[in-house]
Amino acid sequence: MSTALFRHATSHVYFYEGFPLKINAHRAGFPVIATLLGLACVMGTGSALADSSSAKANLQANIRRAGVTLPDLDAPGVVTVPAMVKGMYGIYTADGRIVSLTNEAGTITGKGTGLSTVGLQPGKPRPMTPEQLAELRNEIMANLAYDKLIKVSYGNGGGRKILMFTAVDCPACNQLEKDLRKAAPLMNTTFYLATGSLRDSSAGGLPFLDKVARIRCDDNPGQAWQTYWANRSVPPARACAITAASAEYDFYLLFRIMQAVKAIKPAIPMLVSEDGTGLPLFAGLTPAKAAAAFGPERKTSALQPTTQWLAAAQASKPAQPAPGGKAR
Prior knowledge:
Helix content: 25-40%
Number of domains: 2
Protein name: Thioredoxin-like fold domain-containing protein
Radius of gyration: 20 Å
CATH superfamily of the largest domain: Glutaredoxin
Low-confidence stretches: 1-34, 41-47, 315-328
Strand order of the largest sheet: 9-11-10-13-14
InterPro entries: Thioredoxin-like_sf
Number of helices: 8
Shape: globular
Protein backbone atom coordinates (compact mmCIF):
# COMPACT_ATOMS: atom_id res chain seq x y z
CA MET A 1 0.00 0.00 0.00
CA SER A 2 1.29 3.42 -0.92
CA THR A 3 1.10 6.21 1.60
CA ALA A 4 2.85 8.73 -0.62
CA LEU A 5 1.62 12.28 -0.21
CA PHE A 6 0.15 14.10 -3.14
CA ARG A 7 -1.02 17.66 -3.56
CA HIS A 8 -4.69 18.02 -4.32
CA ALA A 9 -4.99 19.90 -7.59
CA THR A 10 -7.70 22.29 -6.46
CA SER A 11 -7.58 22.64 -2.70
CA HIS A 12 -3.81 22.55 -2.14
CA VAL A 13 -4.11 20.29 0.87
CA TYR A 14 -1.93 17.27 1.42
CA PHE A 15 -3.82 14.01 1.67
CA TYR A 16 -2.74 10.44 1.93
CA GLU A 17 -3.81 8.67 -1.23
CA GLY A 18 -3.82 5.08 -2.30
CA PHE A 19 -4.98 3.29 0.83
CA PRO A 20 -6.27 -0.13 -0.18
CA LEU A 21 -9.86 -0.62 -1.19
CA LYS A 22 -9.30 -4.38 -1.28
CA ILE A 23 -9.82 -6.05 2.07
CA ASN A 24 -7.06 -8.50 2.89
CA ALA A 25 -8.16 -9.52 6.36
CA HIS A 26 -7.24 -13.16 5.79
CA ARG A 27 -3.57 -12.28 5.41
CA ALA A 28 -3.55 -10.86 8.90
CA GLY A 29 -4.68 -14.15 10.34
CA PHE A 30 -8.40 -13.39 10.68
CA PRO A 31 -10.66 -16.41 10.23
CA VAL A 32 -12.41 -14.49 7.47
CA ILE A 33 -15.49 -16.65 6.98
CA ALA A 34 -16.20 -16.46 10.69
CA THR A 35 -15.43 -12.75 10.68
CA LEU A 36 -17.87 -12.09 7.85
CA LEU A 37 -20.57 -14.22 9.40
CA GLY A 38 -20.01 -12.40 12.67
CA LEU A 39 -20.29 -9.07 10.89
CA ALA A 40 -23.55 -10.09 9.30
CA CYS A 41 -24.86 -10.96 12.76
CA VAL A 42 -23.69 -7.95 14.74
CA MET A 43 -24.53 -5.35 12.10
CA GLY A 44 -28.25 -6.03 12.04
CA THR A 45 -31.30 -7.82 13.32
CA GLY A 46 -32.77 -11.02 11.99
CA SER A 47 -34.64 -8.87 9.49
CA ALA A 48 -31.37 -7.34 8.30
CA LEU A 49 -29.92 -10.82 7.85
CA ALA A 50 -32.91 -11.79 5.74
CA ASP A 51 -32.46 -8.60 3.70
CA SER A 52 -28.79 -9.47 3.14
CA SER A 53 -29.74 -12.92 1.93
CA SER A 54 -32.39 -11.58 -0.41
CA ALA A 55 -29.98 -8.96 -1.79
CA LYS A 56 -27.55 -11.64 -2.89
CA ALA A 57 -30.31 -13.91 -4.25
CA ASN A 58 -31.89 -11.04 -6.19
CA LEU A 59 -28.55 -10.03 -7.69
CA GLN A 60 -27.86 -13.64 -8.68
CA ALA A 61 -31.28 -13.86 -10.36
CA ASN A 62 -30.79 -10.57 -12.22
CA ILE A 63 -27.31 -11.58 -13.37
CA ARG A 64 -28.63 -14.89 -14.68
CA ARG A 65 -31.51 -13.18 -16.50
CA ALA A 66 -29.01 -10.80 -18.07
CA GLY A 67 -27.10 -13.77 -19.47
CA VAL A 68 -23.81 -12.72 -17.92
CA THR A 69 -21.59 -13.98 -15.13
CA LEU A 70 -20.18 -12.18 -12.11
CA PRO A 71 -16.94 -13.80 -10.95
CA ASP A 72 -17.18 -15.37 -7.48
CA LEU A 73 -20.84 -14.49 -6.94
CA ASP A 74 -21.77 -18.17 -6.77
CA ALA A 75 -18.55 -19.35 -5.11
CA PRO A 76 -18.72 -21.29 -1.82
CA GLY A 77 -18.54 -19.18 1.32
CA VAL A 78 -19.66 -15.92 -0.28
CA VAL A 79 -21.22 -13.69 2.39
CA THR A 80 -23.32 -10.52 2.18
CA VAL A 81 -22.44 -7.81 4.71
CA PRO A 82 -24.80 -4.88 5.49
CA ALA A 83 -23.22 -1.48 4.96
CA MET A 84 -23.64 1.53 7.22
CA VAL A 85 -26.30 2.60 4.72
CA LYS A 86 -29.71 1.01 5.11
CA GLY A 87 -30.43 -1.02 2.00
CA MET A 88 -26.83 -1.29 0.69
CA TYR A 89 -24.61 -4.35 0.99
CA GLY A 90 -21.17 -5.65 0.17
CA ILE A 91 -20.80 -9.19 -1.13
CA TYR A 92 -17.46 -10.76 -0.22
CA THR A 93 -15.64 -13.99 -0.99
CA ALA A 94 -14.60 -16.27 1.86
CA ASP A 95 -11.10 -14.78 1.77
CA GLY A 96 -12.39 -11.21 2.05
CA ARG A 97 -12.33 -9.99 -1.57
CA ILE A 98 -15.14 -7.75 -2.73
CA VAL A 99 -17.46 -9.36 -5.29
CA SER A 100 -19.99 -6.57 -5.67
CA LEU A 101 -21.86 -3.77 -4.02
CA THR A 102 -25.61 -4.13 -4.36
CA ASN A 103 -29.01 -3.10 -3.05
CA GLU A 104 -31.71 -5.35 -1.64
CA ALA A 105 -33.46 -5.64 -5.01
CA GLY A 106 -30.17 -6.74 -6.60
CA THR A 107 -30.53 -4.15 -9.35
CA ILE A 108 -27.16 -2.49 -8.64
CA THR A 109 -23.74 -4.05 -9.18
CA GLY A 110 -20.17 -2.75 -9.10
CA LYS A 111 -17.08 -2.77 -6.92
CA GLY A 112 -16.66 0.89 -6.10
CA THR A 113 -15.14 2.65 -9.08
CA GLY A 114 -18.47 2.58 -10.89
CA LEU A 115 -21.95 1.10 -10.66
CA SER A 116 -24.23 -0.53 -13.20
CA THR A 117 -27.91 -1.46 -13.23
CA VAL A 118 -29.00 -5.02 -13.93
CA GLY A 119 -32.52 -6.37 -14.20
CA LEU A 120 -34.10 -3.00 -14.98
CA GLN A 121 -33.83 -3.57 -18.71
CA PRO A 122 -33.25 -6.51 -21.03
CA GLY A 123 -29.68 -7.50 -21.70
CA LYS A 124 -26.39 -6.88 -20.00
CA PRO A 125 -25.74 -4.54 -17.06
CA ARG A 126 -25.56 -0.90 -18.05
CA PRO A 127 -23.48 1.81 -16.36
CA MET A 128 -25.63 4.05 -14.20
CA THR A 129 -26.31 7.41 -15.77
CA PRO A 130 -25.24 10.60 -13.96
CA GLU A 131 -28.90 11.17 -13.13
CA GLN A 132 -29.26 7.70 -11.62
CA LEU A 133 -26.06 8.12 -9.59
CA ALA A 134 -27.35 11.44 -8.26
CA GLU A 135 -30.64 9.82 -7.26
CA LEU A 136 -28.86 6.94 -5.54
CA ARG A 137 -26.50 9.36 -3.79
CA ASN A 138 -29.50 11.27 -2.41
CA GLU A 139 -30.99 8.05 -1.04
CA ILE A 140 -27.67 6.99 0.47
CA MET A 141 -27.34 10.28 2.34
CA ALA A 142 -30.91 9.85 3.62
CA ASN A 143 -30.19 6.30 4.78
CA LEU A 144 -26.77 6.69 6.40
CA ALA A 145 -26.57 4.90 9.75
CA TYR A 146 -25.54 8.04 11.63
CA ASP A 147 -26.01 6.20 14.92
CA LYS A 148 -23.11 3.90 14.00
CA LEU A 149 -20.74 6.75 13.16
CA ILE A 150 -18.75 8.75 15.71
CA LYS A 151 -20.53 12.03 16.40
CA VAL A 152 -18.41 15.08 17.23
CA SER A 153 -20.21 18.39 17.82
CA TYR A 154 -18.86 21.89 18.27
CA GLY A 155 -20.84 24.69 19.87
CA ASN A 156 -24.56 24.14 19.39
CA GLY A 157 -23.99 21.68 16.55
CA GLY A 158 -25.24 24.06 13.90
CA GLY A 159 -27.81 21.57 12.69
CA ARG A 160 -25.08 20.06 10.53
CA LYS A 161 -24.50 16.43 9.55
CA ILE A 162 -21.13 16.47 7.81
CA LEU A 163 -19.76 13.03 6.98
CA MET A 164 -16.00 12.75 7.51
CA PHE A 165 -13.75 9.91 6.38
CA THR A 166 -10.70 9.90 8.61
CA ALA A 167 -8.02 7.57 9.95
CA VAL A 168 -6.17 7.23 13.25
CA ASP A 169 -2.77 6.90 11.52
CA CYS A 170 -3.21 9.77 9.07
CA PRO A 171 -0.91 12.82 9.47
CA ALA A 172 -3.23 14.98 7.39
CA CYS A 173 -6.12 13.97 9.65
CA ASN A 174 -4.01 14.94 12.65
CA GLN A 175 -3.50 18.39 11.15
CA LEU A 176 -7.20 18.75 10.44
CA GLU A 177 -8.06 17.80 14.03
CA LYS A 178 -5.59 20.42 15.31
CA ASP A 179 -7.26 23.05 13.12
CA LEU A 180 -10.70 22.02 14.36
CA ARG A 181 -9.61 22.20 18.01
CA LYS A 182 -8.35 25.73 17.45
CA ALA A 183 -11.62 26.67 15.78
CA ALA A 184 -13.81 25.05 18.45
CA PRO A 185 -14.68 28.30 20.31
CA LEU A 186 -16.05 29.79 17.09
CA MET A 187 -17.69 26.79 15.45
CA ASN A 188 -21.25 25.51 15.47
CA THR A 189 -21.14 22.28 13.50
CA THR A 190 -21.38 18.51 13.75
CA PHE A 191 -19.26 15.84 12.10
CA TYR A 192 -20.15 12.15 11.76
CA LEU A 193 -16.93 10.19 11.43
CA ALA A 194 -16.26 7.04 9.44
CA THR A 195 -12.99 5.98 11.00
CA GLY A 196 -10.35 3.51 9.89
CA SER A 197 -6.67 3.09 9.15
CA LEU A 198 -4.57 4.00 6.12
CA ARG A 199 -3.08 0.53 6.42
CA ASP A 200 -5.18 -2.54 5.84
CA SER A 201 -5.01 -5.45 8.23
CA SER A 202 -2.44 -7.26 6.09
CA ALA A 203 -0.08 -4.28 6.06
CA GLY A 204 0.34 -3.39 9.73
CA GLY A 205 -3.09 -1.91 10.26
CA LEU A 206 -4.31 -4.16 13.06
CA PRO A 207 -3.03 -2.03 15.98
CA PHE A 208 -4.67 1.04 14.46
CA LEU A 209 -7.92 -0.75 13.69
CA ASP A 210 -7.97 -1.96 17.29
CA LYS A 211 -7.76 1.68 18.39
CA VAL A 212 -10.70 2.50 16.14
CA ALA A 213 -12.72 -0.33 17.69
CA ARG A 214 -11.91 0.80 21.25
CA ILE A 215 -12.92 4.37 20.45
CA ARG A 216 -16.18 3.31 18.82
CA CYS A 217 -16.98 0.97 21.74
CA ASP A 218 -16.62 3.70 24.34
CA ASP A 219 -19.70 5.08 26.08
CA ASN A 220 -18.83 8.48 24.60
CA PRO A 221 -17.02 7.77 21.32
CA GLY A 222 -16.99 11.43 20.30
CA GLN A 223 -15.09 12.39 23.45
CA ALA A 224 -12.84 9.34 23.08
CA TRP A 225 -12.02 10.44 19.54
CA GLN A 226 -11.03 13.94 20.62
CA THR A 227 -9.01 12.54 23.53
CA TYR A 228 -7.11 10.31 21.14
CA TRP A 229 -5.97 13.24 19.04
CA ALA A 230 -5.15 15.31 22.13
CA ASN A 231 -2.85 12.75 23.79
CA ARG A 232 -3.00 9.54 21.67
CA SER A 233 -4.70 7.55 24.43
CA VAL A 234 -7.58 5.17 23.74
CA PRO A 235 -10.18 3.65 26.06
CA PRO A 236 -9.40 0.24 27.58
CA ALA A 237 -10.58 -2.84 25.72
CA ARG A 238 -14.08 -3.97 26.62
CA ALA A 239 -16.66 -6.49 25.50
CA CYS A 240 -18.16 -4.99 22.36
CA ALA A 241 -19.61 -6.12 19.05
CA ILE A 242 -17.20 -3.85 17.18
CA THR A 243 -13.82 -5.46 16.53
CA ALA A 244 -10.77 -4.49 14.50
CA ALA A 245 -12.10 -6.69 11.71
CA SER A 246 -15.60 -5.23 11.68
CA ALA A 247 -14.18 -1.70 11.90
CA GLU A 248 -12.14 -2.40 8.78
CA TYR A 249 -15.13 -3.68 6.83
CA ASP A 250 -17.34 -0.81 8.03
CA PHE A 251 -14.82 1.76 6.85
CA TYR A 252 -13.89 0.30 3.48
CA LEU A 253 -17.43 -0.69 2.55
CA LEU A 254 -18.83 2.77 3.20
CA PHE A 255 -15.86 4.33 1.42
CA ARG A 256 -16.47 2.14 -1.63
CA ILE A 257 -20.13 3.11 -1.72
CA MET A 258 -19.46 6.84 -1.45
CA GLN A 259 -16.75 6.66 -4.08
CA ALA A 260 -19.04 4.68 -6.39
CA VAL A 261 -21.70 7.42 -6.30
CA LYS A 262 -19.08 10.10 -6.92
CA ALA A 263 -19.42 11.72 -3.49
CA ILE A 264 -15.71 11.46 -2.66
CA LYS A 265 -12.28 11.05 -4.19
CA PRO A 266 -9.80 8.33 -3.13
CA ALA A 267 -8.16 10.43 -0.45
CA ILE A 268 -8.17 10.87 3.32
CA PRO A 269 -9.43 12.98 5.04
CA MET A 270 -12.56 13.58 3.01
CA LEU A 271 -15.71 15.52 3.97
CA VAL A 272 -19.19 15.14 2.52
CA SER A 273 -22.00 17.65 2.95
CA GLU A 274 -25.61 16.80 3.67
CA ASP A 275 -26.49 16.73 -0.03
CA GLY A 276 -23.76 14.23 -0.88
CA THR A 277 -21.29 16.69 -2.37
CA GLY A 278 -17.69 16.89 -1.24
CA LEU A 279 -16.58 19.74 0.98
CA PRO A 280 -13.22 21.25 0.01
CA LEU A 281 -10.35 21.39 2.47
CA PHE A 282 -7.78 24.09 2.03
CA ALA A 283 -4.45 25.22 3.39
CA GLY A 284 -4.40 27.74 6.19
CA LEU A 285 -7.63 26.59 7.84
CA THR A 286 -7.87 29.36 10.42
CA PRO A 287 -10.56 29.26 13.11
CA ALA A 288 -12.58 31.89 11.28
CA LYS A 289 -12.34 30.01 7.98
CA ALA A 290 -13.30 26.73 9.64
CA ALA A 291 -16.30 28.29 11.33
CA ALA A 292 -17.42 29.76 8.03
CA ALA A 293 -16.79 26.60 5.99
CA PHE A 294 -18.53 24.14 8.30
CA GLY A 295 -21.10 26.31 10.08
CA PRO A 296 -24.89 26.38 9.66
CA GLU A 297 -24.72 29.13 7.03
CA ARG A 298 -23.09 26.68 4.60
CA LYS A 299 -25.52 23.83 5.22
CA THR A 300 -26.86 22.36 2.02
CA SER A 301 -30.32 20.87 1.97
CA ALA A 302 -30.43 17.19 1.19
CA LEU A 303 -32.43 16.57 -1.98
CA GLN A 304 -35.49 14.37 -1.77
CA PRO A 305 -34.87 11.00 -3.45
CA THR A 306 -36.88 10.56 -6.65
CA THR A 307 -36.44 6.79 -7.00
CA GLN A 308 -36.49 3.82 -4.69
CA TRP A 309 -33.07 2.27 -5.25
CA LEU A 310 -32.85 1.39 -1.56
CA ALA A 311 -36.46 0.35 -1.08
CA ALA A 312 -37.12 -3.17 0.13
CA ALA A 313 -37.51 -5.63 -2.71
CA GLN A 314 -41.15 -6.51 -3.29
CA ALA A 315 -41.91 -10.12 -4.15
CA SER A 316 -38.33 -10.49 -5.42
CA LYS A 317 -39.07 -8.04 -8.23
CA PRO A 318 -36.43 -5.42 -9.10
CA ALA A 319 -37.17 -1.90 -7.93
CA GLN A 320 -38.06 0.29 -10.87
CA PRO A 321 -36.85 3.87 -11.21
CA ALA A 322 -39.37 6.67 -11.29
CA PRO A 323 -40.23 8.31 -14.62
CA GLY A 324 -37.30 10.32 -15.86
CA GLY A 325 -34.77 8.03 -14.21
CA LYS A 326 -34.89 5.14 -16.66
CA ALA A 327 -31.69 3.32 -17.52
CA ARG A 328 -30.17 4.09 -20.86
